[in-house]
Write a structure and sequence with these properties.
127 residues; mainly alpha; two-stranded antiparallel ribbon; 7 helices
Length: 127
Amino acid sequence: MVSEKESLSQDCKNLQSIPGIGKITAIAILAEIPEFPSLESARQLASYAGLTPSHRTSGISVRGKSCLSKIGSSSLRKALYFPAITPKNHNPMLQQFAQKLEKKGKHTMVIIGAIMRKLLHICFGIL
């Protein structure tokens, strides 16, 4: 189907130019992302994917630490998980970002979630 539509084929090639994103991941991202005119910013796309922080509060109490909201496309989050691990070792920009978070004392899964969000922002910019 991707090869039949020229614009989707070009978008797929553009996504594959990002280190860590291969053909299967690019197709999964294109299949999960809704039409872009409905999304005005990369932040909205991250919210659609469920890669935004969720805070647990009740009145004036704040319970625990924030975590990913996970309200959104679980398939898109699954498609971005392994590409988020790969650039951590091979993409200099994301490697610096991960090291900065490590210095702040963030846990591995928090870093991977942040890289997933950053990758989604890059995908939005390319498309």
